[in-house]
Design goal:
Strands 2, 5, 6, 9, 10 and 11 form a 6-stranded mixed β-sheet that branches. This protein folds into 2 domains: about 30 residues, no CATH class; about 100 residues, Immunoglobulin-like. The chain is elongated. The protein has 2 helices and 11 strands; from the N terminus they run H-H-E-E-E-E-E-E-E-E-E-E-E. The mean pLDDT is about 85. It is of the alpha+beta class.
Length: about 140
């Protein structure tokens, strides 16, 4: 029993020291947890109508609260002819800065198209859409 009593203070001290840890790690962990609870908003801009073979410029303006998001993990534009989503194409957006991400695309066929941005930023994902009508004239 006496041998066991010698180890108890050592065991208590080991547990106490292990629980303390590095304060810098705690501060860093706390910083990472302070993520904005504001929803991610994406304003999708581009032409409503285009002439066949004309190039359209589409922009996704990414905002969280009052801040323009310049560090989105992924911004892609998916484009398809209405009723034919299985033939959609995906285009990786270019980061133009100030929360603006854009692509250019020309449409080779008449019809009504859906342009959908896929934006992933700050652990959120949003996918707004807009329609574009492409005609011969």
């Amino acid at each position: 029993m006496k041998k066991m009593n010698r180890w108890i203070p050592f065991l208590i001290m080991t547990i106490a020291l292990t629980a303390c840890g590095d304060r810098e790690q705690h501060a860093e962990h706390k910083e990472k947890k302070e993520v904005s609870t504001e929803m991610l908003e994406v304003q999708l801009h581009g032409p409503d109508t285009l002439v066949k073979s004309e190039t359209g410029h589409f922009e996704a303006v990414v905002i969280q609260g009052d801040e323009k998001v310049e560090d989105a993990e992924e911004v892609e534009f998916e484009i398809w002819l209405e009723g034919a989503k299985e033939t959609s194409i995906n285009l990786e957006a270019e980061n133009e800065g100030n929360g603006v991400y854009s692509v250019k695309h020309s449409f080779e066929q008449e019809g009504e198209y859906i342009v959908q941005s896929h934006v992933t930023a700050r652990d959120m994902h949003t996918m707004p859409t807009k329609k574009v009508i492409v005609s011969n004239e």
